Request: fold
Amino acid sequence: MQAAVLYDQRDIRIIETPIPAIGDDEVLVKNKVSTTCGTDVKNYKRGYPLLKPPHPYGHEFSGVVAEVGKNVTKFHVGDRVAVHNSAPCGHCYWCKHGQPSMCENLLFNRGSYAEYVKVPEPIVRQNMFVMPDSMSHKLASLMEPFSCAVYGIQNCPIQQGDFVVINGAGPIGLMFARLAVLRGAQVLVTDLKQNRLDVAQRMGVWKVLNLTGVEDTVEAVRDLTDEHRGADVVIEATGLIDVWKTSCRMARKGGFVLLFGGTKSGSVLEVDATLLHYSQITIKGVFHTTPLCVQEAFKLLEMGVIDENDFVNNEYRLPDLERAILEHASGAVIKNAIVYD
Reply:
């Protein structure tokens, strides 16, 4: 089969490799659609703290079961499946304390830019689902990032009518925006790309703010809040440390800031201690997702809460993967799809 390997920064190679052999508790999936992701872009451009190249590339996909291990009973050859890329162990200290995203044995299944993907037992057991006929493979491929947004929004104390700012209108930011709208919030989305902000408007947000040329982004956001007091909840979804810093200053007294976008390795967040103490703001970092949120994300996709056409723009074949990644990196699209049939 053909598969993509990231050999180093800006060095993607499509190689010929044997179709993976599966164990008794594993499943082999014939890929239908892989989607590009901001994490893939970061890996390509600057590396990733948790991975050392060369390594299999990609982690969002959906396909059809091609083979099942002899102990697998939930899935059968021919099933159309949505597959997450990770699963916790369920028995370490953090899993037992209800923090599975912090699992010390958290399994990540890399290599979704390939014609076939082997799915390990923990994912088969916890984070893989048979798709209804009404769900497309493009929509199912969004389950992984959408589950991260579901987990992030569950950590935010959003009440109906709250003023919620989402900094960043990439895929995750847009998913946050949609979920915040469904919670009844007054949602403001900021970004530098108008095409992305246009998508946010289609999702029902209250207002968008293009920050191109804006000198003081904090003041620009606060000016849109009642009495200039700041937002009830601020969600950071860019992964840029400067936006982490400005996000902390956009919250009202007693407000909440969620820092979700993963920053470059070595980044340091500096917070005004006087602001933190006397304004009594809560700042929380959240990483990845949980099996419960994966299940909920799959259900929300089944309900049609988000539309694949808002997220997946262009189609490429696997040999053109680098073009798809670079187009994603440019901000000209929200995501691209790699298709295999």
About this structure: The first strand starts at residue 2 and ends at 8. Residues 167 and 190 are 5 Å apart (CA to CA). The chain has a mean pLDDT of 97.
